Amino acid sequence: MIWSRRGFLQSLAVSALGGVAAQSSLKGMVSEASCEPTRSGQDGSLIRLDSNENAYGPSTKVAAAIESYTGSVNRYSRSAYPALRERIATFHKLNPHQVLLGCGSTDILRMAACAFLGPSKQLIQASPTFGALEHYARAVGSDVLSVPLTQAYAHDLDVMLLHASASASLIYICNPNNPTASLTPRTDLEAFIGKLPASTIVLIDEAYHDYVGQSGMYRSFIDRCLIDDRVIVTRTFSKVYGLAGLRLGYAVASPRVVQRLHSYATENNVNSLVTHAAMAALDDNGGVDQFVRRNSDERQEFFNQAIARALKPIDSHTNFVMMNTYHPANQVSEHFRQSGVLISRPFPAMDTYIRVSLGRQEEMIAFWRTWDILPFAKNIMHH
């Protein structure tokens, strides 16, 4: 009944948007998962383009695994935890002792704050960036230094290095960065890490790794964890795998660092259902490839639509796009909310920019239709 009800809501949404003739190029895109249910959230009347979720996921194989293991949710996941850790280690060609699981990657960020921060310690991060670690850092009494991004929307590593004193215990690098969807080059990060004090830990958040595609600037830092105790890399099953609601993330680091992080983990912090879903997801290369290809097509279509309106979004390497509206972002997001479309909250460091998660074809048609009725939409073309 759950699937059929969601499918019914999806069909209503498609019917309601079907008359939008202005988006002909969007309509020409083929949806390989048109029979999949909408996963919009509890209120089916809202189009959710606000949280960078996989609008299509999980894949058919992963959904089947979830359904097949619903009978086990009355049991704790103690036995599944080591099996999943070993599977992730095999996936990355690592030792299982280099892998730590968490209730989403934000759980790993909490552990890192507890392990490496506290009074008289400092977190250095970009501005704007994903805000969870800052929240946890302040909760344990740390100072937080936020360094504005460069004009190319990369982390300003030179300025970060200037502030990397002995009190700077943890540096947070979200790459690709949220909310700007931008990259900081691997070579620059390598040089930066090599100049840091030996006591400084660098946490590299690779939540959007799978969406980057071919880029000469980017390569995962998981290989660096094999040789450098100061590097922690986090990944999540919330994005390309489509499991945001089940909450699973992991860290890759040296065994010593993993053990230190683990001392701040909550008991039974990974549920049994998501462990089985994650196993299936790691084995479903075809599903991941399909999501990545679809996202690439939808991202390009977003840029096509933006350019047609004389808009210049920041180059995106993720499943979301950030662009300047030249008006207060809170006013723009409220306009969208009143039209039933949710986009991101405003980011104070870039308070005229909006972040838009890429959604299904009909959801993006609704986004552009709502954009076009903004009172100032035509005026933006003159900037």
Radius of gyration: 21 Å
> Topology as H/E string?
HHEHHEHEHEHEHEEEHHHEHEEH
What general form does the structure show? Answer: globular
Strand order of the largest sheet: 2-8-7-6-5-3-4
Low-confidence stretches: 1-42
Percent helix range: 25-40%
By DSSP, the count of extended strands is: 11
At the third CATH level, what is the topology name of the largest domain? Aspartate Aminotransferase, domain 2
CATH architecture of the largest domain: 3-Layer(aba) Sandwich
Task: Work out the strand percent.
Answer: 5-15%
Question: How many separate domains make up the residues?
Answer: 2
Structure annotation, total helices: 13
How would a textbook summarize the main sheet?
7 strands, mixed
| CATH homologous superfamily caption of the largest domain | Type I PLP-dependent aspartate aminotransferase-like (Major domain)
Averaged pLDDT: 88
The CA-CA distance between the termini, in Å, is 50 Å
CATH class wording of the largest domain: Alpha Beta
Structural class: alpha/beta
Tell me what the structure shows:
This protein has 383 residues and is of the alpha/beta class. α6 (132-139) links the parallel β3 and β4. α3 (60-68) runs antiparallel to α10 (272-283) and α5 (105-116) runs parallel beside α6 (132-139). It has a seven-stranded mixed β-sheet with strand order 2-8-7-6-5-3-4, with helices on both faces. The radius of gyration is 21 Å and the shape is globular. The protein folds into two domains: 2-58 and 286-382, Aspartate Aminotransferase, domain 1 (Alpha-Beta Complex), CATH 3.90.1150; 63-283, Aspartate Aminotransferase, domain 2 (3-Layer(aba) Sandwich). It has helices at 2-17, 24-27, 60-68, 80-92, 105-116, 132-139, 157-162, 186-195, 255-262, 272-283, 285-308, 329-338, 361-372; strands spanning 47-48, 99-102, 122-127, 143-148, 168-174, 201-205, 231-236, 249-252, 320-324, 341-342, 353-357. Residues 1-42 have low confidence and may be disordered. Helices cover 38% and strands 14% of the residues.
